[in-house]
Amino acid sequence: KVLAENDQLRKEADDLGPRVELDYWKKKLSKFSYLMEQLKSPEVKAVLGVLTAAKSKLLKKWRALDIRITDAANEAKDNVKYLYSLEKYYDPLYNNDPVSMLDAIPGLINAIKMIQSISQYYNTSEKISSLFVKVGAQQEKKFPDYL
Known about the structure:
Layout: H1 2-7, H2 18-39, H3 42-53, H4 58-95, H5 98-118, H6 125-142
Helix pairs in contact: 2-4, 4-5
């Protein structure tokens, strides 16, 4: 069920700020970390031992699911790491006056460019574009008459 939800397209309002992106990936990380813990439990290892001993055909499906869960957990972990690194750059969008906010934009753009160039998972045009939309939405929300 969690993997099916993970594969679904994400639907969000157009006026959400960049903190929402971090919160989204933190929730995913929490779900997949919990699943990873369960996969390492003695109970699961015992079941896998029985399936292996029985040379069950289910092992192939199990391994495919395990790989998908591990990849999703790694993606969430990687994305949370990089999105946390943006926090100091997008905090002024929530807390400061228009001039301070605008002064923070070049650093934020450079940090996003860095993420695009080095992140294994967050470097897609869809994710980067969505992040820029959230930055713009927060600017508009905080100072609609200034921009």
